[in-house]
Amino acid sequence: GVFSSDEVIRKRLLIDGDGAGDDRRINLLVKSFIKWCNSGSQEEGYFQYQRMLSTLSQCEFSMGKTLLVYDMNLREMENYEKIYKDIENSIAAAHEKISECKKQILQAKRIRKNRQEYDALAKVIQHHPDRHETLK
């Protein structure tokens, strides 16, 4: 089928990753190698040889950069996992604290209810004469 230029560009970017030109560099390297093999004069051969070395060093640099980015991404993932675990632990601790506070509230309500009952009983008792008066 016929590809539109957008599709070709999209495919190139997908193959090339971040668009650093590795695909193009490898093609250049192959072309330089073929030119080097077919070079007539020693001078042209030396020029093609230097060109290949330059392209190779660019590829190595790009590969090194990619590896560094990869390592950095791994470390970032580990860091995010640690943060995620810390947040999970904080949430669990907060839930424990909430349930503990609920228990304390229930206990406080019980104590308050008991005090109100004691106060009501005390008022009733105060209306009656004490033992000493009753015995008289």
TrEMBL record:
Superkingdom assignment: Eukaryota
The keyword Endoplasmic reticulum is annotated on this UniProt entry: no
Subcellular localization(s) per the UniProt record: Nucleus
GO CC terms: THO complex part of transcription export complex
Key word Nucleus present: yes
Biological process (GO), any one: mRNA processing
Keywords: Coiled coil, Nucleus
Location, primary (coarse class): nucleus
Coiled-coil portions: 77-104
Function in brief: Component of the THO subcomplex of the TREX complex which is thought to couple mRNA transcription, processing and nuclear export, and which specifically associates with spliced mRNA and not with unspliced pre-mRNA. Required for efficient export of polyadenylated RNA. Plays a key structural role in the oligomerization of the THO-DDX39B complex.
Xref: PANTHER family: MAINTENANCE OF KILLER 16 MAK16 PROTEIN-RELATED, THO COMPLEX SUBUNIT 7 HOMOLOG
UniProt similarity note: Belongs to the THOC7 family.
Protein name stated in the entry: THOC7 protein
Upper taxonomic lineage: Eukaryota, Metazoa, Chordata, Craniata, Vertebrata
